[in-house]
Backbone:
């Protein structure tokens, strides 16, 4: 989901719709393209953690490929989020570009 170039409300709506599709299709893998995210607001991180990520986790999410933000500030926060989810048992990998992220997810057989 590429939410970085959208407005705040649009980005959250996009994540909600993405979660709906993920759950409806019984997915286990998620690819997020965060290159356009310049920074994360604390309230956005809280919402994403409580409403989006936990919803996916409760519905079979096992693998996450994250394309890291281009900006340093976004990368620092993104990496801290990745560490938190790795510690919780989610299989998370970070990437610079889309092709290797897609290749990694495609290689996983659940």
Residues:
């Amino acid at each position: 989901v590429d939410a970085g170039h959208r407005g705040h409300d649009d980005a959250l709506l996009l994540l909600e719709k993405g979660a709906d599709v993920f759950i409806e299709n019984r997915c286990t893998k998620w690819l997020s393209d965060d290159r356009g995210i310049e920074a994360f607001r604390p309230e956005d991180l809280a919402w994403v953690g409580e409403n989006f990520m936990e919803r996916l986790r409760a519905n079979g999410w096992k693998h996450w490929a994250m394309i890291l933000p281009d900006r340093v500030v976004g990368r620092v926060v993104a990496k801290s989020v990745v560490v938190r989810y790795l510690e919780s048992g989610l299989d998370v990998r970070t990437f610079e570009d889309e092709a290797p992220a897609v290749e990694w997810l495609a290689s996983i057989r659940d």
Notes: The longest helix spans residues 8-24.
